[in-house]
Amino acid sequence: MLTFADDNRHYSEFHFGDWKSFVIWNQTSIDNDGVVMDRGHAAQPTPRGSAVPMLNAWISSTFDTSKLKLARIHSLGDGVLVPHRDFVEFNSTPWSRVHIPLLTNQNCLHSDTDIVFHMRSGEIWFLDASQLHSAINYSAGRRLNLCLDFDLRGEPVDAVFRKSESTATCNTPKIVERRPLSKSFGVELASLAATLTRSTLQQAVGLLSRVHFFREAGRCIL
Question: Is 148 a domain residue?
Fold first, then answer.
């Protein structure tokens, strides 16, 4: 189990509940530098990242680290990320993001636009983080996800791999089927809005961030 302390606090406003981010590769070799920013050179393991040599060896042998800009381990307990877009500060082509589940269970879900899915152990996912996305864990078991950001400068996504030919297979993604929203949802939402105060706004956002994982909320929530 991951025993890191002092998680990185950058972008902490995007989560509710038990969510932590630990930087293990970046461009400054500073443990707590998790800022998404191109400083003009490739990432290297941070002091914290040096504590996971087997994981570093796998990253180096699997991926073209000359294109790697940032590597983080996202640790999610009982919590949720607010649906959001990344790389909005980029004026040019955004980075390409890869997710690798290290530890997960069936109650750990992700969303991309209005699709909800489960990342299974052993899978490598490419996600367009410039699109609306989110994640949730509604279990007592912790989820650990390796998140790698690459600057491909217009190259295809498979350029992240060190070898040009891969023997990996492409699995059918595990899409989560959800029921439609109840007909009374609009009335319930209006009732909630009528009770909002400055002190309860955060809790309401956290609650609403969960809805689309269990109901076909579409743009009503997102």
Answer: yes
